[in-house]
């Protein structure tokens, strides 16, 4: 399944890159807010992924950002974000990716994240490690929160992103610095590579993290995924991914900042 994910995500990344100029001029629409964009490229890429999965993995369920799908977690299901970082894609900021994962009973078992601009291929299979262009990945050895570089992201709704900014304000005095690059899958991959020591975000959808979270976890990251009925003080929608040496400190700081309540 990891080989299938890489193969299809590579093809999809090629398409995203090829159609970008037309997609961002002739085919831009909005979804939840005026800042939440979707392009013809997003739709075309997801259609390609679905077509290729139907050929290579016939009969298997697919959940995608643009066309939806079965919400049940039971059994095998592919989860696709055709272009993670669509706003970046729209502006030509080269930090966006195609993300594809296979999940069994809601747990990621294989995944790939491919960057159309750089061509980088991130991949993982449960129990078999994580890789960047075939080279093994491992998280950083950071063990001090005050020296940690931490990624995050913001919601499209103004009220929620304003509350998220207050959390960042609380954290800035406790970490080395904050990064916000606009693609959750690549934030997670950056933790896997040691380019970030951690990332956190509230309100992500399954397609945002299904592949990247597996890649980070297989590279040694401590992972806290969104979960309904959570009782750890971080709410149901919080994702936290960190190198183990700072995971406890970061979750404590997020809890103190009421980050799960935004």
Automatic annotation (TrEMBL):
Cofactor: Mg(2+)
Binding site residues for Mg(2+): 65, 81, 83-84, 208
Keywords carried by this UniProt record: Hydrolase, Magnesium, Metal-binding
EC top class, as a word: hydrolase
Nuclease as UniProt keyword: no
Signal peptide: none
Listed EC numbers: 3.1.3.25
MF terms (GO), sorted A to Z: inositol monophosphate 1-phosphatase activity; metal ion binding
Alphabetical GO biological process terms: inositol metabolic process; phosphatidylinositol phosphate biosynthetic process; signal transduction
Catalytic activity: a myo-inositol phosphate + H2O = myo-inositol + phosphate
Family per record: Belongs to the inositol monophosphatase superfamily.
Name of the protein described by the UniProt record: Inositol-1-monophosphatase
Species per Swiss-Prot/TrEMBL record: Saccharopolyspora karakumensis
């Amino acid at each position: 399944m990891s080989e299938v994910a890489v193969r299809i995500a590579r093809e999809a990344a090629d398409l995203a890159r090829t159609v970008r100029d037309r997609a961002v001029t002739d085919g831009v629409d909005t979804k939840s807010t005026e800042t939440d964009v979707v392009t013809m490229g997003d739709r075309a890429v997801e259609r390609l992924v679905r077509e290729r999965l139907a050929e290579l993995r016939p009969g298997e369920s697919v959940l995608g950002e643009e066309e939806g799908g079965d919400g049940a977690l039971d059994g095998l299901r592919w989860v696709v974000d055709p272009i993670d970082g669509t706003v970046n894609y729209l502006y030509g900021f080269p930090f966006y990716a195609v993300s594809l994962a296979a999940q069994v009973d809601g747990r990621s078992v294989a995944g790939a994240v491919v960057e159309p601009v750089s061509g980088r291929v991130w991949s993982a299979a449960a129990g078999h490690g994580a890789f960047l262009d075939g080279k093994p990945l491992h998280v950083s050895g950071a063990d001090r929160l005050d020296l940690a570089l931490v990624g995050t992201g913001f919601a499209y709704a103004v009220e929620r992103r304003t509350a998220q900014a207050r959390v960042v304000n609380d954290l800035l005095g406790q970490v080395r610095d904050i990064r916000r690059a606009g693609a959750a899958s690549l934030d997670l991959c950056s933790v896997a590579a040691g380019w970030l020591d951690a990332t956190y975000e509230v309100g992500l959808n399954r397609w945002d993290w299904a592949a990247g979270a597996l890649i980070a976890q297989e590279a040694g990251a401590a992972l806290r995924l969104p979960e309904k009925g959570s009782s750890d003080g971080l709410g149901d929608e919080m994702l936290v991914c960190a190198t183990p040496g700072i995971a406890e400190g970061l979750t404590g700081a997020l809890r103190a900042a009421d980050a799960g309540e935004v």
